[in-house]
Design a protein that fits this description.
By secondary structure, the chain is of the alpha+beta class. It has a single domain, classed as Aminopeptidase (3-Layer(aba) Sandwich), CATH 3.40.630. It contains ten helices and eight strands. The chain has helices at 15-28, 30-38, 41-56, 62-65, 68-96, 98-102, 135-141, 184-198, 213-221, 259-268; strands at 4-9, 109-117, 131-134, 149-160, 167-175, 203-209, 225-235, 239-249. An eight-stranded mixed sheet has the order 3-1-2-4-5-6-8-7, with helices on both faces. Helix 8 links the parallel strand 5 (167-175) and strand 6 (203-209). Helix 2 (30-38) runs antiparallel to helix 5 (68-96). The protein is globular.
């Protein structure tokens, strides 16, 4: 067994690998997000509006007015890139404080997926079958990986929600592009959900954008349900991304209990 992936809890020293992986995963969706922005209605409205202003008020030739097209495209790309860069700054601060944010209490945790493979790989990771196992299974199997290279190829975290009572947030679900479709994300998500169950949370929530369809489909397969949809700002309120908040219900909420039904049940049991 020369190609394995171990899912384990975060350890000191993982910061560099986590930071690089999360950065690559975030930036890998930049192109898809940018392309999606180009075909939004607001983009065509901006092009038409600016062209009309130049033609009517400044008397510019039509050929010159058409130059607003690359200008609008450039502005959208800059705005999207700045948003992603700001997100990375936030993430870098979070990764630097993983021990304090996720590993210092019993209600949060951060996991990594670490790949072990030969130093001289003759095949691309996409072409290789990896055995995904948890750290406990790895120790029980007593596998020797001392002569293999290792690197972090996946992450996920779970922490307490300060907005919703008895709820948890699943964040930083990332898998390296070359290691996807191998069951790594599924195993990471399973561990996060199981941790939420063991910690006594009533539900676990996760947010995905309209451009991360694979991630949403995985969550739906795992039993997550759509809770709400909302728009996240990219350039003010003019250009936004549709976000999906998904929830995994662990315990019934107070709204699920009906006092009337409980009263009727208690009444009927008396006869």
């Amino acid at each position: 067994m020369s190609h394995i992936v171990i899912v384990r809890a975060f350890k000191p020293g993982d910061e560099t690998g986590c930071r690089k992986l999360i950065r690559d995963c975030v930036m890998s969706s930049l192109s898809a997000t940018f392309c999606g922005m180009l075909f939004k209605e607001i983009t065509f409205q901006l092009i038409i509006l600016l062209s009309a202003i130049m033609f009517i008020f400044f008397g510019m030739p039509l050929t010159v007015c058409l130059l607003v097209v690359p200008v609008v495209i450039a502005l959208i790309y800059i705005g999207t890139y700045v948003t992603f860069a700001a997100k990375l700054t936030e993430i870098n601060g979070e990764v630097a404080n993983i021990p304090r944010l996720y590993m210092s209490n019993a209600f949060s945790c951060f996991w990594v997926a670490e790949a072990f493979e030969p130093y001289l790989m003759t095949q691309q990771p996409k072409e290789v079958h990896y055995t995904v196992m948890r750290e406990e299974q790895f120790y029980q199997a007593k596998l020797d990986v001392s002569l293999q290279a290792k690197k972090i190829v996946g992450t996920v975290s779970l922490g307490k929600s300060y907005r919703l009572d008895r709820s948890a947030w699943i964040k930083r679900l990332c898998v390296h592009e070359r290691y996807r479709r191998k069951g790594i994300a599924s195993c990471l998500l399973n561990d996060a959900v199981q941790f939420a169950i063991d910690a006594g949370y009533s539900c676990a929530n996760i947010v995905a954008s309209e451009y991360t369809e694979e991630g949403r489909e995985l969550c739906f397969k795992k039993g997550f349900e759509l809770k709400q949809m909302y728009h996240k700002s990219i350039l003010g309120s003019y250009i936004t991304i549709l976000m999906y908040e998904l929830t995994y219900q662990i315990k019934p909420t107070e709204d699920d209990y009906s006092p009337t039904l409980d009263f009727e049940k208690a009444f009927l049991t008396q006869f």
